[in-house]
Amino acid sequence: MGYVISRTGFESVIEKLGQQYRLYAPVRKVGEGRYTDVDVVRYDFVTKFDEIELEAKSDYAFKELLTPLSQTLFFFTENEVKEADFDDRDVIIFLRSCDMHAVKRLDAIYLENKFADPFYERIRKRVKFALIGCAHSYEDCFCVDMGTNRTTEGYLFSIDVAGDEIKSDVACPDVAALFEAADAKAEEVVPAYVTENEVRVTVPEKVPNEIYKHGMWDEYTARCINCGRCNFVCPTCTCYTMQDVFYTDNGKVGERRRVGASCMVDGYTNVAGGGQYRRTNGERMRFKVLHKVYDFRKRFGYDMCVGCGRCDMVCPEYISFANCINKLNDAVNELEGGASK
Amino acid sequence: MTANNPYVPFPSKIKEIIKHTEKEWTFRMQYTGDVKPGQFYEVSVPKYGEAPISVSGIGEDFVDLTIRRVGRVTDEVFKLNAGDTILLRGPYGNGFDTSLYANGEVIVVAGGTGVSPVRGVIEALAHTADAKDKHVIVGFKSPGDMLFRDDLKRWADQLDLILTVDGAPEGYEGNIGLVTKYIPDVPIRDVKNAQAVVVGPPAMMRFSVMGLLQKGFEEKNIWVSQERKMCCGLGKCGHCRIGSTYVCLDGPVFNYVDSKDMID
Amino acid sequence: MARDINTKKLKKNAFRYSKVRGETASRIRIPGGVINAKSMAKIAEVAETYGNGTIFVTNRQGVELPGIALEDMPAVNKAIQSIIDDSGVNQEERDKGYPASGTRNVVACPGSRLCPFGCYDTTEFARKMDKMIFPNNLHVKIAFTGCSNDCGKVRMDDFGIIGMTEPQYDPNRCVGCEQCIKYCNIRSVGALSLVNGKVVRDTDLCIGCGVCVAYCPTRAWTRSKEHYFRLVLLGRTGKKNPRLAEDFIKWADEQSIMDIVKNAYAYVEEYIDPNAYEGKEHIGYIVDRTGFDEFFKWIMKDVKLNDKAEVAHRIYWGGKHYDRSNNLK
């Protein structure tokens, strides 16, 4: 069922939902961007509708809520291992279609892939979603070619702002009751979605092994500074590193945590004794790109990359992931053409 | 506490410590569950971290973990004595299918600490009926780096063992040379059906496999064990992934047909 | 017609006394170093019409239009009126050009308008300062730079303002990638270290340059809401004792800096040598005479610093003393 509701009406719906759920949404953090007097849009707790940033695309993805950047797993005392507490209240996350598709990728790694991760699972099962409609594509988006531009299920309700009104497709009867109570007008609503992006990508169907030695990666060895920003903003990057510490003031007590990891940053493959794989940034780029548009698909049946374009937005060296996919496709075509001769 | 949390380690008592070298000790850990050679455990030292250690021996009520002292976690483990407790998670990974090597000709090529994961395989070979058709080439950097000296003596009687070192002080009477030097001379009658197991440092593995292929071994009969940064053992942390393969889940033991296409 | 030119008035009106007899140069003031394209076109037009068609770009971000006939000064003053209007420089009488030239153009590096490391809008602050101090005949040099790199070379000025940000750290967003530590070591002072997987900042060593913020991939490091400044004092060039400015306050706020500079003008009015040649005595030499304590008392009058500010109560300057010895052997 769908509703058209006034802004004040919708504000009251959000307020009521806030009593039942913790609401997380993209928020404009004024002055907290990389540079002076530059904002950043990232996910945070909200209580009111006007705290939600619905205009800009978020710089950082929602994934930090499901896979925190730094998450304590255990506390250690002298003789005891204690699992860290967690907030067990229900959560609604406001996100766009590409990110809804990213949830499926996070689940594939953390709930499937042989083992379910209990630390992820206990958060995940409390999380529900609200879909933010996309009335237009943003710079760097390539969701259409990645097939993530549209989401038709998996959300409680959707939001599309149309002037002074909000249009919602409401899937959850409890939420529908809140709309009814706020004098919403019933009307068929289809969440807005993008049908065209300026950025186009062609993902190669099959990537031959010769691509590993292809010269296309050398460019990135020279250009990339292995800062890992692309990984940290990505809604589908899931890697982490374990960190064990003992507190400086009391060495007998400590904790085990996991922190976000990046396959671009030094140390990712270091093994005890000094071994290291993928030393050059070109090799790391290859590892990342192939995972996003090929290796993950080989394991799970669909591509990992959802085409949100955040990696392109954040790269300080103006390296375009989308363009890299296209270069990969060209290289694959060139190799296949060569092989058939 | 979350039920069946795979991240929660279990305590295991150290039954015995066997010191091979100053830096390489085998910790014999109390354990009665299922485990296969080639699998690994995460040795979990609270406040210091975790380290993947492969199973180097299996007994009725124990597993052997041969640990090399190379960092923060292993430094702590080396402070412990028999009777102390170590926290473990695992076993993880697929391990070797030793039934593959029960009958017929087999060659095992192992280098350095790579001997640990195949020690259980060699042990199984030593107890087969046709043990004289089981050929084992074991290489260490120097005589001082040798692991499992007692086992080596025993294996020399039980099967065809070639023990070699990369280099040795003057007067050393054993074999000197890389393991690859000995591969061509191993007497294999039916090379198309012989099985091979190769474990060791990356370069050693690469050249050993080349030697075996030159000798006429079939790719599908060659088995290798890959070592990567296995942080979680659960296919989550991503550090050990190569292409679409998670070494901690799908390996660490791979058929060469698969492993040859795994490029870091 | 006989030339009868008051060179004192000419200089005060921002024209240069030229070595070429009968000629002068018009000195255009560009506080904060930013001028709009229209004014730049006007400058070019004046240079073509009245000057010799060349433009000299000065060290202090002004421009000079040489080759102007002394007779054309009134016409030039009329012609540059639109430039003065656009640049927002205070004026006493329209169409009469600049009312003073003693207090020099206020310099600014590109600052946060362009530079990734700029900690504040240097041009805006420079313009605000210019509004307060100009016109004035006292020979005072003020410069603004966005960060401790000091691309604005503010340590050569009487008052140098260096931008600072106080890095804000959210350990919950830190993944221990150590890039802040790496780049603080490479590009700055090495004030960061990793303790228990999280980053610790040596607040004594930290110069507030913001390099950690720029390189943090997760927004664990962000900039402080407040813009802070390091105020450095009394650097100078010159024939007697050129020297670099020394630190006076760190973590200062904008208002305090405005107040201090204003107070400094009053101090100079009070203590400048009445017999100074052409009424010109650099403030640093006045402080050399009165002692720093007296200077401190004057400039800090009614200044309300924030709690974070650290003030040096004694400053020693070094530099080259040509007036004492100039023997290199």
What does this structure look like?
The complex is a heterotrimer of chains A (about 350), B (about 260) and C (about 325). By secondary structure, chain A is α+β, with helices and mostly antiparallel strands. In chain A, about 30% of the residues lie in helices and about 20% in strands. The longest helix of chain A is centred in the last third of the chain and has 20 residues, at about 280-300. A seven-stranded mixed sheet of chain B has the order 10-9-8-7-11-12-15, sandwiched between helices. In chain B, strands 1-2-5-4-3-6 form a six-stranded antiparallel beta barrel. Chain C has ten helices and 14 strands. In chain C, α2 packs antiparallel against α4. Chain C is globular, with a radius of gyration of 23 Å. Chains A and B meet through β4, α4, β11, β12 and α9 of A and β4 of B.
Poorly predicted regions of chain A: none
CATH class placement of the largest domain in chain B: Alpha Beta
> Which regions of chain B are unreliable across 5 or more consecutive residues at pLDDT < 50?
none
Oligomer state equals heterotrimer
Describe the protein's topology.
The complex is a heterotrimer of chains A (341), B (264) and C (329).
Chain A: E1 2-6, H1 7-20, E2 22-29, E3 40-46, H2 63-66, E4 70-76, E5 81-83, E6 91-96, H3 97-110, H4 118-124, E7 127-132, H5 143-146, E8 157-162, E9 165-169, H6 173-181, E10 185-186, H7 218-223, H8 229-233, E11 240-246, E12 254-260, H9 281-300, H10 310-314, H11 321-340
Parallel strand pairs in A: 2-6, 6-7, 7-8
Antiparallel strand pairs in A: 1-9, 1-10, 2-3, 4-5, 4-12, 8-9, 11-12
Chain B: E1 10-19, E2 24-30, E3 40-45, E4 49-58, E5 62-68, H1 72-77, E6 85-92, E7 106-111, H2 115-126, E8 134-140, H3 149-158, E9 160-165, E10 175-176, E11 195-199, H4 202-215, E12 222-225, E13 241-242, E14 245-246, H5 247-250, E15 253-255, H6 256-259
Parallel strand pairs in B: 7-8, 7-11, 8-9, 9-10, 11-12
Antiparallel strand pairs in B: 1-2, 1-6, 2-5, 3-4, 3-6, 4-5, 12-15, 13-14
Chain C: H1 7-12, E1 15-17, E2 23-28, H2 37-49, E3 56-57, E4 63-69, H3 73-79, H4 81-87, E5 107-108, H5 122-133, E6 142-145, E7 159-164, E8 168-169, H6 179-187, E9 192-195, E10 198-201, H7 211-215, E11 221-222, E12 228-233, E13 246-252, H8 254-271, H9 283-290, H10 292-299, E14 310-311
Parallel strand pairs in C: 5-6, 6-7
Antiparallel strand pairs in C: 1-2, 2-4, 3-4, 7-12, 8-11, 9-10, 12-13, 13-14
Helix pairs in contact in C: 2-4, 5-8
